[in-house]
Amino acid sequence: MALSRRTFSALAGSAALGLALGGSGGPGAFSAYAGGGARTGPAPGPPSADGERHSIGYDRHSLLVDGRRLVVWSGEMHPFRLPSPSLWRDVLQKMRAHGYNAVSIYVAWNYHSPAPGVYDFSGVRDLGQFLRMAAETGLYVILRPGPYINAEVDGGGFPGWLTATRGTARTDDPTYLAHADEWLTQVNRIVRRHLYTQGTGTVLLYQIENEYDAHAREATGRNYMSHLYRKVRADGIDVPLFHNDKGRNGYWIPGTFDTGGEKGGWLYGFDGYPSPSQTPPDWGHYGPGGLRGGATASPATPGFVPEFGGGWFDPWGGAEFDGKGYAESRRTRDAAYERRFYLTNLANGLTLHNVYMTFGGTSWGWLPAPVVYTSYDYGAAIDEGRNVTDKIAPMHQLGHLLQRVPDFARLDRAADVTAAGLKVYHLTNQDTGAHVYVVRNDGTEAVTTDLPTDAGVLPITVPGKDARLLATGLSLGRRALKYSTAQPMLCLTAGRQDIAVFTGRRGDMAELVLDSPSEPFVERLDPEAGWAYDRGELHVNAPLGQGGLTRVLVQKGDSDTPLLLLFADDATAVRLFPYDTPSGTLLAYGPALLRHAELRGSEVHLTGDITERATLEVWAPRGIDTLVWNGQRLSTRITRSGSLMTTDMVPDVPEVRLPELGGWRMRTENPEAGPNFDDSSWKRADRTSSFSTTAVPDGRPVLFADDYGFHYGDVWYRGTLTGTDGVEEVSLAYSTGTQGLLMAWLDGEPLGTHRMPVPDKGATVRQGSWTATAAFPVAERLRSPGRHVLSVLVRRMQHDQDGKALDTHKAARGLTAVTFKGADPEVSWRIQGEGPADPVRGPLNNGGLYGEREGWHLPGFRDRDWERVTFPRAARYQGVTWYRTTFRLSVPADVDASIGLTLDDDPYRAYRAQIFLNGWNLGQYINNVGPQHTFVLPNGILRTRGGNTLALAVLSEFTTLSGPGSARLTLLGRAAGGVPVSPVVSP
């Protein structure tokens, strides 16, 4: 849409004012538009590192970027949950193609800092590389570096070493602030090179802290937030800052803490994860109002949800989804769920949306918090294997709508409307006169009724537990929509014509009316559509989903510019991809994904993915007569709708064959259990005080692993005992995260195994720290005089998060106290955990198993002298057994294959396996707990064209026979296309 001279002058004047007030270099940049306004007009173009200065402001309706209204439709992904930088681009391109204009990311302190003063932003931790990719993809970035992030990661993102430091976290304690400042200095040094205000990147918004409600009404909280604000500004971050209010308390609205005199640089945000059984809440126009009403807590800033449920996470044992895992999360929070809840948000005036998660990924290694297992699939629209799922449809449709139809950036509540059996929200854009109706069915059965609108009474049907969006009075290019019973998805100009897309459920009958005082010339380009002209109105009907896309071309009449109407059901709509190029906008139809479009002379070059045989169709700027797909020139014809369409089907995806896993070699370990093992290089466990929140037993040494510098994975203890005469029992008190485990030996003989219980769906499902005491009888033969050795292996799992700012991340991990019955022998303790942080894989990769310290998980390790074995295994053994094998893949070079490892066994068998692929710790399988059986092997770590080394470190409990049972490779998805993938580290 072209700008009028008057509108252009107004925008130019506003931009000049912004620069005069400080541009992007000072506090005045944010007040340039704050509290002001802009008329409805075209949204800003896709962002890039364009070298131009930009202003970012807001009013109560929306953000204002260079004076233009921007609705933010963002998706959350975490680079640290996908440790293959090549695949970051894959996910980012999928997000952009499916309607997102922004990506939100946490930056995890623990991922980058293995020790105090040590920070690593290289390799898989290269934050700058991710920010460059986002800019190249055309996505804004919402950056969330904490210091505390929660995120269901170890310690809520706090580094392990912070657990052993003085000072109370998430307060104005000076010791903690010094550590936090050091972290932010490192992050901000990178971020300030990628700010959208400076034209050097696309970082749009920046979050400080996360869900911080513990000290919101206290001076310590206000001082802390003020300190973070000033620190970030001092580091040169000049985009708007915000916080994410957990549970909508009205905490940290503008004016609640000191910002050093800066005005207009702070946004209020809040989050929400409504249950599918809950009625979608009103957190804005239609809500209760006040501080706890969501957006109403800050009426001068736009409605902002930095996190809103795109799924939910699952605990060990799978209690959240009845043992069915993330497939059940995706089923219960499906496309209809997302429509109901996000359309309700839209109706309540929220214009900054972030879908948490859009791609969940994998909490590999020792990354997961105690409340989750390895997979962080989340039931998200893009699954853990990077496959786009059916629930992408509402995200795709809404995202493109909010970017391509400017009326939705400035909606106000209008007169109440009622319709029998339905909840109706009525909004209007006072600039354009457009009306929007969100119609929601909270019942389980479909409702058919009449909806009163400003354009007349419309008959509508809304399925149970679903919602619909209808609009009247929209501009469709040069023509005017009176009403449509199908939801608008986009309106754009491609070449010499305007194109408007309308969507709905399969089988719906779309009814659309255009105001047309002069009778137009109408062509039904697909047989499913029907049309009629009557008294200044053009009526068009089309059944959705019959035959794919339905096209109707409207010409002449009131405009010399043709209007192409496209009608699509959900499955068809997600194969429609708009793309902006320097020469104009195009629209592609047919592929599973459009990654990139480029015009070269008369050729349009498209790259993307095909998952099944398809016809490709492109509406492009004028002068385009040749279609090149993934480097191949295709035979095409010009259609009556003005598109280029392939004359032949693009072939299906080539077959991907996976080898069987065999050739296993086995070796038992845990020599640490033996009485003669040399532990002289281990650290003495003789401290007497700790900064942990766990009390140190009177008169006994500190045994907490973190106090000795061991923060991740397994930890070994060896206690040399003297004076054991009369000892009848040894009691081992220990503290772990969820599903922690303890094994004990005396003089090399097993005493037994103890593990924490499986969380239930009630009181313990969110419990992050677990304590227990394992009491083992001591056999008569082990009570002789002299020296004895008590060996204990503790699988600590992870540190608790610190959601309530109570230093719960400092709860002890490992042994906490050791007592004896019948005697009180003297004990000298030594402790050993993980070795130095892996320089490539980082601090969260390795634990303290003997095999890890000796490199048994690495691809170059020589295992020829190990015993050859076959699966299934059935052994009874307390301790650790390693299994290794190699396999080769030959996936075609032009195929993106997502591959997983699936482990299965008799669910009664009590053992667990740590999975290493090419040295990368990709997850933990607990056979008798679950629910996870398949583990994603990300390309780049996985060599899809070459050799791979797989290692399993199995901890067996002795109470049952132990596997592994079966281990096989599983094809999770495949597409012809993908992105070039570089190996993460050489084998």
TrEMBL record:
Swiss-Prot/TrEMBL catalytic activity: Hydrolysis of terminal non-reducing beta-D-galactose residues in beta-D-galactosides
Disordered: region residues: 665-684
Sorted UniProt keywords: Glycoprotein, Glycosidase, Hydrolase, Signal
Coiled-coil features, chain-numbered ranges: none
PROSITE patterns from the UniProt entry: TAT
Entries under InterPro entries matching the protein: Betagal_dom2 (IPR018954), Betagal_dom2_sf (IPR037110), BetaGal_dom3 (IPR025972), BetaGal_dom3_sf (IPR036833), BetaGal_jelly_roll_dom (IPR025300), Galactose-bd-like_sf (IPR008979), GH (IPR017853), Gly_Hdrlase_35_cat (IPR031330)
Leading EC class: hydrolase
Family the entry assigns: Belongs to the glycosyl hydrolase 35 family.
Stated name of the protein: beta-galactosidase
Organism: Streptomyces rameus
